[in-house]
Write a structure and sequence with these properties.
The structure is a homodimer of 385-residue chains. The two termini of chain A are 34 Å apart. In chain A, α2 links the parallel β4 and β5. In chain A, the strands form 3 sheets. In chain A, strands 13-12-11-14-10-15 form a 6-stranded mixed sheet. In chain A, strands 3-9-8-7-6 form a 5-stranded mixed sheet, with helices on both faces. By secondary structure, chain A is of the alpha+beta class. Chain A folds into 2 domains: 255 residues, 4-Layer Sandwich (L-amino peptidase D-ALA esterase/amidase), CATH 3.60.70; 117 residues, ArgJ beta chain, C-terminal domain (Ubiquitin-like (UB roll), Roll), CATH 3.10.20. Chain A is globular, with a radius of gyration of 22 Å. Helix content of chain A is 31%, strand content 23%. Chains A and B meet through α8, α9, β13 and α10 of A and α8, α9, β13 and α10 of B.
Amino acid sequence: MQGVTAPAGFRAAGVTAGIKASGKPDLALVVNEGPQRAAAAVFTSNRVAAAPVHWSREVIKDGRVDAVILNSGGANACTGAPGFQDTHRTAEEVASLLGVSATDVVVCSTGLIGERLPMEKILAGAAEASGALSAEGGAGAARSIMTTDTVPKQAERTGSGYTIGGMAKGAGMLAPALATMLVVITTDAVLNPAQLDAALRAATGVSFDRADSDGCMSTNDTVVLMSSGAAGVTPDEAEFAALLSELCTDLALQLLADAEGASHDIAVQTVNAASLEDALEVSRAVSRSNLFKTAIFGNDPNWGRVLSEVGTTKAAFEASDLDVTINGVMVCRGCGVGEDRSLVDLASAREVSVVIDLKAGTEQATVWTNDLTHDYVEENSAYSS
Amino acid sequence: MQGVTAPAGFRAAGVTAGIKASGKPDLALVVNEGPQRAAAAVFTSNRVAAAPVHWSREVIKDGRVDAVILNSGGANACTGAPGFQDTHRTAEEVASLLGVSATDVVVCSTGLIGERLPMEKILAGAAEASGALSAEGGAGAARSIMTTDTVPKQAERTGSGYTIGGMAKGAGMLAPALATMLVVITTDAVLNPAQLDAALRAATGVSFDRADSDGCMSTNDTVVLMSSGAAGVTPDEAEFAALLSELCTDLALQLLADAEGASHDIAVQTVNAASLEDALEVSRAVSRSNLFKTAIFGNDPNWGRVLSEVGTTKAAFEASDLDVTINGVMVCRGCGVGEDRSLVDLASAREVSVVIDLKAGTEQATVWTNDLTHDYVEENSAYSS
C-alpha cells in the first residue's frame, strides 16, 4: 500500500535523520506536485500547542500547501520563541530545497515536550528526504513518523476517477510523551480549499474526534489534507465526503488497534438518545472511566460501572429505563439485572461492543476506546523520561 | 478515638451481620439521643442513585434524623422498586427497635451494584446493633463500614464547649465496585438544620468535593451531619464552620491515603487564577490525567503532561506564562524548561505537591488525587465481580 502516494501528483520519502537515539527512520516529507495545491487542516485544540502547530495554522490560512515535513523524536512543544524559530527554519529549508514558499510548508513534530530539536540533523534530513522523493515513497514516509507505534498506518480509498490516500502515526493516545496523532491525507481529485475544509472537518468529527483512548489530548495533533487535482476529476461532493470519512475512520481504528498496552478495543455506542450531543456525552463519559476500562481488562462485563458513568452526564434519560448490552448480551435491563453476565465472552477477542440504550430519542453515536491495563501503566511510567 | 461518639448525646455500634462473605463486621448504627435531633446531608449527584440515597433524601427534608444505619457488602443500587422496599423495610425495623419514626432514619449502603441485599441478615443485624449501642461505640461503627479500606477512618475536633466527631469509609474512589464514600459526622453543639446544612455544604465543598482519586463517582455517596445539642452550647458559626471543614478535610485525606493501589498522594494546587472556578478546573483536569498519574507512579516529574492538561481547560491564562513546581522545584518556567528536573525527589515520600501558576489573578484551589499504578489496575480488574 502506498498511502499518501497512492493518488497521482504526490511524492514522498522517509529517512533516518538521526533525531531518534534508536537509529530508526524519523523524518518524512510529502510533496504535492500539482497541478493544484489546495489544502485544509485541523489541529489540536490544546491551548498549550507546539511550535509547529502555531506555524502550520498560519500556513493553512490561504488554503495552499506545497509540502509537509514531519519529524518524530521531538515534539518541539514548550520550547518558546527559539522553538518557533526552529520550525520556521525547517520550513525555509524545505522551501529552498523544493523551490517553493516557506509559507506553503506545513511542519509536524512528535516526541517529548520541552526539548529543542537537533536542528543540524533536521536540516540535513530534509535535504536527504528531498533527494529521495518518490511516487512510491508513501510507505517509507509512514514508517518514519512512527514513535511508539508498532506498525505503520496507511489507508486508501478509490472514488469515481480519483483516489484518496493517507498515513497516520500515534499509538492511540496511550503512548508515552502524549502520543501525538499526525495524519497526512492526499487526493488527486479536483477540489478547492473550502471544499477540502468542509469535508475534512466532517470526516474528522466522526473519526479521530471519537477515538478516545485515554482522554489525554496532545499538544501537537495535526491532520492535513491536500489535493493535487492530478486526476482531473471533480468529484461528487457527497461521495468524496463519504470516502474521506471512511478513510479517516479506518486510520482512527488502526491507531486504537495499536494503542500501547491495550488488550481490548472497545466501541461504546449510545443509542436512542435525544440528541447527538447526548449520545456523544454518554459514550465519552463511559470511554473515560478508569473503573470501566479496568473491568474490561479483567474480562468483567461490569454494567454497574457503565451505569454509574451514564449517571454523571446531563443527557436526557430516565434512570429506570437504561439498558446496557455488552457483546450482544443485555446484561442490564431497565437499570437492573438483565441476562446472565456469564454469557458475555470478553476473553476470546480484542473487540468489545458496549451499547447503552437511553430510550430518549433516535440519535446515536459511537466513541472508541481501549481498556486500562498493566502495560498501559508500565509503558507510561517506567519508560517515560 | 471515638469518632461519632466523641460528642455527647450519641451512641453507636458495629456488628457482623453476615452480609459480607468474609465474616468481617458489616453493619453500623449511629443514634442521636438528643435532646436535639437536627441534621443535614449531602448526597451523590449521580443520576443513577442507589435506593438508600433516594430514601435518605426524603428523610433529610424535615431536618431531623434520629438514627443512621449503614451496611457494607451491598450497594442496593440498580435494584429497582424491590430494592427501594428493602431500604424502607430496613428503616422501619430500626425505627421499631429504637421507638422512633422510620422517616427519621437515614440508610446508607455500600458494595456491589445490581444485587439485592440479604434482608434477613440486615434485619437481624439491626436488632443486634441496637442492643449493642454504646457511648463508646464509634470505633466499632467505623470498622464495620469498611469495604476495601485497610484502616478505619475517624476524626474529632474540639470547639469552645462542644465537640465534633466523624467517621468515613471509602478507599479513595479507587476501590472495586465504585468505592462509595459514606461519612457520618456528629456534634453536641446546639445548631438548627439550616445552620447545619450551610456549614456542611461549605465544608464538603472544600474537602470531599476536591478529593478526586480516579474521577469516578459513586451511586451511593452520602455525608450526614447530626447535632444532639447535648453540650448545651450554641457555637460561634464561623468557628463551627472552620472546625467542620478541618474535620472533613482530615477525613478526605484519610480516604486518599488509603486509596487502593496508590503509591502517592498528590496535591494539585492551582495558584494565581482569575477565579476559583478556573483554579478548580485546572487542578481537576490535571488530577484526572492518566498520563500524569502514571508519570508520578514512575517517579517522573513530567511537567509536559501537566501543561498539556492545563491546555485543555477554559481557564484564563497565557500559555507562555505557565509555571509548574513539583515538590518545590520549578521544573517548568514560562512554559519552558525551568530548574533541573533531577532535583525533584518523588521516590522518598508518598506526598507529592504540584503547583501550577496561571499568573492570571489571585484565586487558588487544591484538588487531591492519587497516582495510577499497577495495583490500581490489578485491584479493579482481577478482583471485581
